[in-house]
Design a protein that fits this description.
With about 160 residues, this protein is mostly beta strands. The protein has one domain: Cyclophilin-like (Cyclophilin, Beta Barrel), CATH 2.40.100. Helix content is about 10%, strand content about 35%. The strands form three sheets. The protein has an eight-stranded antiparallel beta barrel. The N and C termini lie close together (about 5 Å). This is Peptidyl-prolyl cis-trans isomerase. One of its GO terms (molecular function) is peptidyl-prolyl cis-trans isomerase activity.
Length: about 160
């Protein structure tokens, strides 16, 4: 279990080592290293997702480790309350950033081993604190330094711990 202690409240997360061992281990390692402490949820889209893990307040990007293999072909769906690895257009480009699905987003699921079909790997699920995640979903957002959907007031991960 992982606890994300945010300025809105705590979110308890269960990692899925059975279906996404690389991604779950990667996330846990970032937690153990203290990478997520002091980071923000930098992109929130109501009814879609809340993304974090890569920026500190002021949208200053944090260094991350090497990219990991995309395990989205594991059969686990991007349903409400699941966490998935964020990535660029390159299917195997995930590193530290992740997002929490605010609704069922099955259009993000794996369909084929090609650029269009790889999808986003679900590696964990919120088991306590969806009320906190729902608070994130309704914050006011805007554009900041060329980034869209940035919360006007920081949603801060004060600390992340392995329980």
């Amino acid at each position: 279990m992982i606890i994300l202690k945010t300025n809105l409240g705590d979110i308890k997360i269960e990692l899925d080592f059975d279906n996404a061992p690389i991604s779950a281990k990667n996330f846990q390692q970032y937690v153990e290293e203290g990478h997520y402490d002091g980071t923000i949820f930098h992109r929130v889209i109501k009814g879609f997702m809340a993304q974090g893990g890569g920026f500190i307040p002021g949208l200053e990007e944090k260094e991350s480790r090497a990219n990991i293999k995309n395990e989205a072909n594991n059969g686990v769906s991007n349903k409400r309350g699941t966490l998935a690895m964020a990535r660029t257009q390159e299917p195997h480009s995930a590193s530290s950033q992740f997002f929490i699905n605010l609704s069922d987003n099955n259009f993000l699921d794996f369909t084929a081993e090609n650029t269009q079909g790889w999808g986003y790997c679900v590696f964990a699920e919120v088991v306590e604190g969806m009320d906190i995640v729902d608070k994130m979903a309704v914050v006011e957002t805007g554009t900041y330094h060329g980034h869209g959907d940035v919360p006007k007031d920081d949603i801060l991960i004060e600390s992340a711990i392995v329980e």
